[in-house]
Amino acid sequence: MLTLMVTVFLSLLDTQIVATALPRVVSDLGGLDQFAWVTTGYLIGGSAAVPVYGKLGDLLGRKRVLIASTVVFLLGSALCGLAQTMGQLIAYRVVQGIGSGGLFISVLAIIGEMFSPREGARYYGWFSLTFGAASLAGPTLGGLLTELVGWRWVFFVNLPVGAVVLLVLSTLLHLPARRHEAHIDHAGVVLLVLTVVGLNLLTGWAGVTYAWSSPVIVGLAAGSAIAMVLFVLSQRRAVDPVIPLRLFTNRTFTTVVILGFISGFVGLGLINYLVLWLQTVLGLDAEESGLALTAMMLAVVLTSYLSTKVIGHTGSYRWFPALSMAVFAIAAVLFSTAGPSTGTLLAVVYMLLFGIAGGLNAQALSLAARNTASMRDIGAVQGTAALMRQLGTALGVSFFAAVMSGRLGAGLHDRLGTSGVHIDKNGSLAPEVVAELSTPLRVELAGVYADSLRVVFYAVIPMVLIGLVVSLFLKDVKLAGGHAPTEPETSSAAEPAGSVTRGDS
Q1: DSSP-based three-state secondary structure for 172
Q2: What's the pLDDT score for residue 495?
Q3: 3 state SS of 117
Q4: Where is this region: Disordered (predicted)?
Q5: pLDDT for 210-245, tens place per residue?
């Protein structure tokens, strides 16, 4: 189990470790206008790969898929360390992300296969602690490696650790082999990847790189919609679909997927705006706002870990998502009433509420999803749930950016336009312009940002209230106990088509 957690740690670490190395990367390779894609490419590769790897694990065996994805991840890491241009680095980060997605979902599915949902709650708690360790260690480790041995070792450091992981997985991880014939849904894989990549590019570019009405954005929207429709149609005909549509006949699974989307939308999608609020409204510097964000992440990790303990003890997860949405709503209302006069301590308390809300359902939804799955569908169930959370995050970031930018541009023109301050074509102020503002104008600027971000928090409230209503549809299906079957594939191959879920239907 320790090896599995180290595997997850590598996957999660690389979402954080690169951030502190990026300035040095840009200095060496150039491409300042492209550097954001070093992170975006990694996330897109991972989100597209997660449901595919999940299903491949169901068909081909999870050990085989975990080892293959580890190899892809290490290959991507090596190539990233050898990159000579920014374009190469971005392409190799996509490869690394594809491997990372396989690491993440395979470990979740292996826990689901090795343990019953109730027993697995303890290991999902370890998963939360691993996430916290990666989130805290990533920026610091990235900075140290960059300063001591160079930014390329931010990627090379994965190689020796990954080699040990591969050796242990190959020799000590024993899982049942697949005994039924595998029918890989090649058309479904291609259409799903096109849909996910298209949606991620759409949400990342719309209103930022390209105008909403530009041919690129309209084309991406149309292409993604067509790919999505074709994907759904292909899943109806496939022998072993990537995302079996029969899963959605289970009310609990459908509810979990919707809640996961909303959680990603308002939780992960809002983090950057909380930091922006601290820096622009309260005037905190990067270090101070970073400490506040660290406190919030600790709240996420601790709450998530404790919630898995309670769920494992009681066998019940039903009220955790509802409580999460209620706390999200309270935090959003509090932030919507805050402004420049709000004290730093009070703002940190509000952020802790956001962290607690995120932690309450971080693993509860994964456990609920696992509890609905037959042994043959664990990977598909976990992959679908993870994909919907990631899509919610991408859409949340795009939506909040659109909401804020419109209000921010109008506010800057109304309150600072007559002062002679240069407002760029995107309706914002360049950092060097902000640095030269007089104290009265800085106060005005803080007010503009407070008003603009207030609209963002207003937009969160109806979303979480919808989530609260949806969460009430979760039935109180106790987590299954006992031990996981030793040969799940044999039994699952013989299951009738309708025998796909545990709980309600």
Answers
A1: helix
A2: 39
A3: helix
A4: 482-505
A5: 888 899 999 999 999 999 999 999 998 888 888 888
